[in-house]
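Quick start: what a row looks like.
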Amino acid sequence: MQYVQLFLTFTCNQNCDFCFNRGIEFRGDLSVKDFEVLSSVLSSHDITELDILGGEPLLHKDILGILKTASQHFHSIYISTNGSLINRLREINELFAHIKVGISINTRIEKKLHSYILSSRPILKSLAEKNRLIPEYAIDFIKRGLPYYIIYRDIISKDDLKDSMPFYEFHRQYKRLKSVYPDIMPVYCEGFISKAASFRCPAGTTKISILPDGSAYPCYLFFRFPFLDLCIKFDK
């Protein structure tokens, strides 16, 4: 196991129709106390990378306490945000300069966020859509040398098919763009193009995903399915 995706909360101040966590039952927020226990368990198993997501993780009332504890247990820490809480972002940058911030820029960028991106140079990412690989305004950030990730859209319902780009088309367009801007990177399941001899998917092999209530899944795409209940019944 290499790293953990931790979903602190499903609370969010936006309602994106492409969010892979949409429709999932709210399970409360992970407390600082429970996170301290979880961090000790994970670090004792030599897991050194933590990816913090949501919902919008910056809405967690104890996000600074969470990040302080995380800094004591993990070598690499990432936090993904929609970039709407600029003041909190600046506070995190000041207190935890070692934590890498990733901002999703799928929709129109407001002036305050644009200024923050240029001054703080966070990791940027956007979701590939059927009719466009990246937003037009992203090119300016890429030209400025900001780290940029293009995310292949996961399909969680048949309704997503109308907005999703076929993977072969995504890969073709990405390769073409990378020939011009070599520093951009793709994000997609390793199972599509496996480089490993022993497995075709990282779920439960190099990563796990953990919900705010502590439930652990091999992949966040399984959150909406009652696999844990099935496992309990099977064990009995």
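That is the whole record. Helices lie at 32-44, 63-73, 86-95, 111-120, 138-143, 167-180, 227-235. The mean pLDDT is 87.
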